[in-house]
Amino acid sequence: MGQTMAEKLLSRHNLANAPAKAGDVVEARIDGAMCHYHASEPMHQLAVQMGFKDGLPRVWDPDRIFVLVDHHQPALSQALADENAVIRKAVARLGIKCFHDAEPGIAHQMMLDYGLVRPGELVVGNDSHTIGYGALNAGSTGITRADMFYVLLFGELWFQVPKSIKVILSGRQPDYPIAKDIILYLAGQYGDDFAQNMSIEYSGSLVPQLGIDSRMCLSTHGVEVGAKFAMFPGDEKTRAFLERCSEKPYEPLIPDPDAEYEKEIALNVDDMPFVVAKPHQFGNVAPVDEVAGTRINQAQIGSCANGRFEDIEIAARMLRGRKVAKGVRFIISPASQQVYLQCLKAGLIETLIEAGAQVVTPGCGVCQPRVGFLSDGEVCITATTRNFKGRKGSLNAEIYLGGPLTVAAAAVAGAIVNPREVFHEL
Predict the structure, then answer these.
(1) Please, which residues have CB within 8 angstroms of residue 256's CB and are 6 or more apart in sequence?
(2) Is 108 exposed, middle or buried (0-12, 13-18, 19+ CB in 10 A)?
(3) Do 265 and 194 form a contact (C-beta atoms < 8 A)?
(4) Predicted local confidence at residue 365, as pLDDT
(5) Could you give phi then psi for residue 226, rounded to 5 degrees?
(6) Which side of the chain, N or C, has fewer Cβ within a 10 Å radius?
């Protein structure tokens, strides 16, 4: 019997040098470890608790640990500034080479911007959305702070090889991003746990049409449907992306033709409507027409799921010659400084600001109760990651999730609306 991508990944990294199949427990060699604003815990606090009075005594490989102070840059409080100072001291003492400190942005996007992850690698991070690197044909997943402490010391970690689910995407990529609609539609049809503890493999005729931005959205949201990994095949778009940011060699993962899957799901996107996730659950999905007319107070585009160029470009295209509706706060946060610069050079930021949108510092704040709090009774539609109660402050606010085109259309209309009713150029 052939192997899935996940089985090949963990066979390749198995310290026992033996083939692995779904259900096996292996001790695996780690290629890279991403630490963000919680780096102070595994590097210092846990080490002190375990008797290392000065913090972590060493790291297994200072070239394979990537520290990116993302959520709290610039620091939003004295406590956070002090925590960042602890990270700086630990990084200097341990000799960690890759440290992005005074650069706002989301760690996951910056990992791609700087070519820190490649096809076929096994990468872990102390954040659940680390799973997004599967867009580049890598096996990546979020781990606990305690597990990260172990990884930083030894460069290895145990894994149970997950079963795999094949998602076969067909149809035509339209002239706007549809990745968010795809994952929401799947969650609505099959439940937001349809990939629980499994590895998603994306395949089908649509995949070569999807850019890395869209693949990142789908892989990142793997965790919202319970997945351990969410991987795309390596192809020409993967190669072209890596040519711009990395010179290191890599070995892509390719599933065997006779690989065994727990289940297969097929979706033709030509038959898929625009959808939203209603409050307060990722899988509470409905066609946008079902909730059309719902008045909004705030609209947002950003996060590690939808803060990239294609997401911001469609908003600028929607707003060209139009205005944000009166009474609506339209907040846009690029995923990184590099994405921000890309948007600036393309003239998107000027268009957005002239139309009445607010462009805020790159980072995770737009996705959490840090930027754009909601008050009691307010309604927000957002192309970010999650919509549970309190995600944007008030427990009595309502959050809808939608694709960037749906969000931009609502910002113009002042209410949730089918984008075709606003953006007649579609």
Answers:
(1) 2, 3, 4, 8
(2) buried
(3) yes
(4) 78
(5) 90, 5
(6) N
The torsion defined by the Cα of 204, 404, 189 and 255, in degrees rounded to 10, comes to: 30
Question: Measured between alpha carbons, how far is 215 from 85 in angstroms, rounded to an integer?
Answer: 35
**pTM for this predicted structure:** 0.96
Give the position of tokens 């089985």.
7
Alpha helices in 229-336 (DSSP H): 236-243, 288-291, 303-306, 309-319
Distances (CA, A) of 384 to 41, 303, 378: 26, 5, 17
Regions in the chain scoring below 50 on pLDDT: none
Q: Tell me if residue 189 falls in helix, strand or coil.
A: helix
Which residue's entry shows tokens 């006779």? 258
CA distance 214 to 273: 17
Q: Which residues contact 45 (CB under 8 A, 6 or more apart)?
A: none
**Which residues on neighbouring strands pair with residue 301, listed in sequence order?**
332, 383
The confidence score (pLDDT) of residue 42 equals 84
* DSSP 8-state symbol, 162: P
- What contacts 348, CB < 8 A, 6 or more positions away? 312, 313, 315, 316
pLDDT at 69: 85
Q: Calculate ∠ Cα 406-308-345, nearest 5°.
A: 110
Evaluate the CA torsion angle 95, 80, 387, 339 in order and state its sign.
Answer: negative
Token pair 């209410």: residue: 415
pLDDT value of residue 55: 87
What does the pLDDT read at residue 41?
A: 84
